[in-house]
Amino acid sequence: MTTVTLNQINDNILALKEEIDEIKDFLEESRLDLRPEVKTEIEESRKRPISQFKTQEEMEKKFL
Length: 64
What we know:
The protein is mostly helical. Helix content is 70%, strand content 0%. It has one domain.
């Protein structure tokens, strides 16, 4: 059986707390109200065919 120290348990708990805080932040952001213009832009982008979007490689060539 593996021996675990209180320091290791504490480190794991702190890491979990950080992850939970990040999840909470994400959930709070998802509740934000968007302006009507932003909602319209999102709807329009979802209607575009995937073939019109740039690939990851194309973006990397442009910016890296």
